[in-house]
Amino acid sequence: MLLIAVLLLPGMAYSQSEQNAVIYTVFVNSVPDGFQYPLFGFVNMARGRHESPQIGFVNSTAGDYESVQMGFINTNRGATSGAQMGYVNASRNGVDGAQVGLINVSEEKMDGGQAGLVNISVDSVDGAQAGLINVSREKMDGAQAGLINVGGEKVDGAQVGLLNVIKKSLRGVQLGLFNYVDTVGSGVPIGLLSIVRRGGYFAFELSTSPHAQLGFAFKVGVPKFYSIWQLDYSNTLPRLLGTSFGIGTLIPLTDRLFLNPEARGVWQFSKRSVVNSYSLNARYEVAKGLQLVAGLVGAYFYRRGDDHSWFWFAKRDFGSSSRVLVGARLGLSYRL
Predict the structure, then answer these.
(1) CA dist list (Å): 298 to 114, 208, 328
(2) Three-state DSSP state, 264
(3) How far apart are the first and last CA of the chain?
(4) How many angstroms separate the CA atoms of 215 and 221, rounded?
(5) Which of 97, 136, 109 is nearest to 120 (CA)?
(6) ∠ CA 129-133-135 to the nearest 5 degrees?
(7) Which among 66, 220, 235, 319 would be 20 to 30 A from 335, CA to CA?
(8) Would you put residue 97 in left (φ > 0), alpha (ψ -120 to 50) or beta?
(9) Which architecture, in CATH terms, is 201-335?
(10) Confidence of residue 55 (pLDDT cuts 50, 70, 90)
(11) Sequential DSSP letters for 121-174
């Protein structure tokens, strides 16, 4: 009887009597289409549609499934309406519900949630994916949260992770260390490095300010939110060279005039010297891509060096190592 049960795999050709046969043992269960009772065994196989729980090491349905599968491996050749919970969960004709396991795969639309180490929807997702690696090949309408998130044609929602990638367009938010998207609609990528292939913001800038006599910056992101990577020369701190990271936004006032708030943190090489700088700038485009920059800056110095700061209007020292300073900032920027 055990040998017969193992041979009765879903999807194989059966005689009329075999199609209607019910094999229900503690070890192997194999039932026909229309058998709507729960399956509890080491191997559970439904040769057609099934609408009751399946609990075992291997659960498999040849048709559509509407209930809960719990086991090491759960597979459905039809659509899944309900939940799959196990080490590997797979549904050929999509999922309307949830998959929870180490590896979750939906070959068609995922309407619900996937939670596991690797979550993959070969079609679109309307819901959420949470795991180490999340992939939606087509449209993602919802949220992805994980170490690596990949969206296909469009993401209408959010990606939160270390690396976020969208093949085409974003309408929502990317939040991560590294973000990549082809185009941005009404959304915004937020991260240490956000690359937008079409319509992104890429600019180089030379500037001078109270905390850095000369700064060379690369700015990348979108006008709504961009990150700043800057190399500084300064004789106001214990070491002449430092590096800055910051964020900023461009607010258009006219076609050529922009309001430009920015914030930076400066770290000195070989010394624990820190400057926090906040500036409110005005930008005027004198030619295509070329902008003049002028603004006010407030800076907090910790472990300051000799007092060689310039372009300052007011300053106040706190003890022997801290200083607050207000001054001016000038620069020349070129947008690619």
Answers:
(1) 47, 13, 9
(2) strand
(3) 73
(4) 19
(5) 136
(6) 60
(7) 235
(8) left
(9) Beta Barrel (2.40)
(10) very high
(11) ESS-EEEEEEEEEEEESSEEEEEEEEEEEEE-SEE-SEEEEEEEEEEEEESSEE
Any idea how long the chain is?
336
Whole-number Å distance between alpha carbons of 276 and 278: 7
Q: Please report which helix (H) or strand (E) contains residue 3, including its range.
A: helix 2-7
Give residue 36's pLDDT.
83
Banded model confidence at residue 3, pLDDT cuts 50, 70, 90: very low
**Structure tokens that stand for 189 in this block:** 């990528």
**Cα separation of 143 and 211, whole Å?**
41
- pLDDT for 115 beyond 60: yes
Residue 176: name the closest of 154, 202, 201, 147 by CA: 147
Q: Which amino acid is at 20?
A: N
Give the pLDDT confidence of 213-266 residue by residue, as tens digits: 889 999 999 999 999 999 888 765 555 677 889 999 999 999 999 999 999 987
Phi, psi of 327 (to 5 degrees): -155, -155
pTM for the model: 0.84
Per DSSP, the three-state class of 127 is strand
pLDDT tens digit sequence for 129-153: 999 999 999 999 999 999 999 998 8
